[in-house]
Amino acid sequence: MKERIISVDIFRGLTIALMILVNTPGTWEYVFPPLRHADWHGYTPTDLVFPFFLFIVGTSIVFAYRNKEPNAATYRKISIRTLKLIGLGLFLGAFTLSFPFVKDFAEIRFPGVLQRIGVVFFFAAVLYLNANWKALLGICVAILVGYWIWLGFVPFDGAAPTFERAPNNWANYIDLQVFGTHMYKDDYDPEGLLSTFPSIASSLLGIFTGLILLSKRPKKEVLLLALGAAMVVLGYLWDLAFPINKALWSSSFVLVTAGWANIVLALIYYLTDVKGIQFGSIFKYTGANAITVYFLSSFITKIFYSVEVADGMSLHGWLYEKIFVHSFLSGEMSSLLYGLAVVSFYLLLAWWMYRRKIFIKV
C-alpha cells in the first residue's frame, strides 16, 4: 500500500485554488498589488503560484513512479498524459463560442499553462526514471547555469544580449521566430519555448523534495526548511547577475520559488503529517482532481467572458456588477470578493467529486 503524505495533496490543492483566484478577479482594472504579476523583473505572491505547481508536479512524480520500471508501458502512460495536457491547453487557446467554435488560426495561442505542465511533466518523469539524485542534481545545475549563460553572454547578432523586454532578448526572440502571432503578447510569451527548460528544473527541485519526504530520515521538515531558506538566499544572490523574472523563468526565479515552495510545504507537512492536525481538507479534495478543476475553471471563465447578457455586458461582467459592486466597497475589494466566490465554487465542486469518488485522471 502506498504511503500517503497529506501535505502534498493539500499543497497541490491550495496552489490550484490560488491559480483560480489570481486568474478570475471581478475586473482587471481593480486588483490588489499582491494579486498582480510583476511587470517584468522581480516577483509578487502571484508569481509564486505557477512555479509552486510545477514544483509539486515533481514531488508527485516521486510518489507515482517510485515503483515503476522505465519500460515501454511506463513511457506510453507518461506520453499519453503529456499529450492530454497539451491537447487540453491547445483547446483552451483555440476555443471560442462563435461557430465553428475555433478562433481564426492567427489568433490561437500555442504556448500555455497546461502545455507547459505537460512538457515539464514528461521530461521530469523520464529523467526521474532514468537517473539517480546525483545525476538529477547535475542536470538541474546544468540547465540553470546554461540558461544564464545563453541569455546573458551569448552575443545577439554581434551585440550584447539583454534580460530586458527587448528584441535582443534571446527568449523573446526565439519565441517570436517559432510562434509568430501565436503568443500571449506581441513580443514574448510567459510560457515560451526557451523558458520551458528552466521550468523543468523547477520540477526537478520538487523531485528532490519528494525523495526527502519518502526517506526514513528524521525531522524532514527541518531539512526542507533549511533547503528552502538556502535556495531563497542563493536565488537572491543570483538575482544580482540574473534578475528574478517569471516571464523569462530566470534561474534565480527557479531557486527563489522552489525555496519558498519547500518552506510552505515543510510547514504544512509539520502540521498535518507530523503533528496530525486536521486542517486544509478542502484543499486536499481539490488536489485530488487538480488538473480537472483548473481546466474547468479556465473553460467556464472563457464562456462567462463570451456570453453577452443585458446591454451587451458579458455574463462575467453582469454577475460582478450586480452582486459584488457596492458603494461601501473599494473596487479592489469587490474584485477580490468575486474571485473568492469563484474559488469557493470550485472548492465545493472538488469536495462533491471527492465525496462521490469521482477522480478524473488527466
From TrEMBL:
Keywords annotated in UniProt: Membrane, Transmembrane, Transmembrane helix
Regions crossing the membrane: 10-28, 48-65, 85-102, 108-129, 136-156, 193-215, 222-241, 247-270, 282-305, 336-354
Keyword Translocase: no
Domain annotation Heparan-alpha-glucosaminide N-acetyltransferase catalytic: ranges: 4-217
Pfam families (UniProt xref): HGSNAT_cat
UniProt protein name: DUF1624 domain-containing protein
Annotated source species: Muriicola jejuensis
Species classification: Bacteria, Pseudomonadati, Bacteroidota, Flavobacteriia, Flavobacteriales
